[in-house]
Amino acid sequence: MACCCHVCYVMQFLLFMLVFPLWAKWLVTSPMPTQYWHDSFPKWPAISAVDGQKLALESARDGLHSIEMSAIPKTAEGCNYSCAAWRGFRTAEMNFRVSLTLNDSTLRKGYAHTVYPVLLASADFQDWWVVADRRHAWPSPFWRARTAKAGHSYSYLTDTCTKPPDGKSEGGEQFTGTYVLACVTWSPTAFAKLEKMDEIAESELATLCNTVGGVCGWSCGSTIPSERLPGCTADSTVEVTPTSVAGTTIPNANFGGTVEMRECLDGTSDGKCDTTTGMFKTWTCHKCMYDSTPLDDDTRRLQIISGMKPPPGLNPLDDTSDGSSTPGDAEAMSGKTSRTIYTSLPRFKVLASGISLPGGTDVFSQPRTYLLTSSMSTRGTWQKLYQTNLGKTKLPVPLDSRGKPVLKTWDDQEAVPVTDPLSSHAMNLQAQNKLDIEPGWCFGMQGPLYLVACAVNSTLYDSGFDRFTAGQMAAPPPFNDRCIAVSGRCGHACSADQPAMANCTAGGLINQSALVGPIREEKNQTTPVWLFVYVLLIGFGVKVVMLCPGIFSAYSHCRRYDPELTEALRYIVVCIPSAGENKCTVLRNVVGAIGCMPKDCNCRYHVAFVDEGHRAEQKRTFSKLGDVIHAIPNRGEIASYDFNVSQLFHHWVDDTKKLELKLVKDGYKGDLDADILERISGRSALRRLKREQGWDRTFSPQMLQPLEAAIDALEQDLKVTKKEQRELHKDDVLDWAPKDRNSLALRMHYLARAKPPEDERTIKAQHVAPGTWYYQVSLNPDNNDWLQMRSTAQEMVYGLEHDDPSKRNVPLRTSRGKAGGLNYAENYLSIYADRPENLYGDARDNCPYLFSICDARHQFQTDFFHTTIPYFFNEDQTMNPYVGFTQCPQFFHEMADKLDYLDNNNAQFFRLNCMIRNCCGGVSSCGTNGTWAIQHKPGSLVWEEEKTRVRDAETKRKSKEWVERRTFHESCKVEDTASSLQQVLKGHRSQFINRRLSFGMAKNPVDYLAAVQRWAEGGVVLALQTFLGCHKGVYMVWFTFLFFIAFLVSLIHLVNQRDEDFLVRDLGLIDKDWFDSVIAQITEKVRIVANFVNSENFQRNPELLKDYVTMTSHFTLWLAGLILFLFGVFLLTEILKLFQRAIGCKLCFVWPDEMRWWGRLLISMDNLTYFLWFWTAFFWIAFNYYSVYAKRTYHFNSTGMFSFMLVVQILSWGMVIASSLRYTLSTSMEANEVISLSMDNIWRSTQLFYMSAPLLAYSIIKGVQDYMRYQMYGEDISYWVGGDRGVMSTNLVKYWTLLLIILAIAAWIYYFTSSNVQVGALGSCLIVSLIALDVLHPCVYLWVGSPPSMSDEKAASKTWFQALTDKSWYARQLHNIILNPSVTGLFKWLGPAWFVAMPFLTLAMPYIGVNQAFMMVGSTTNR
Question: Model pTM?
Answer without folding.
Answer: 0.75
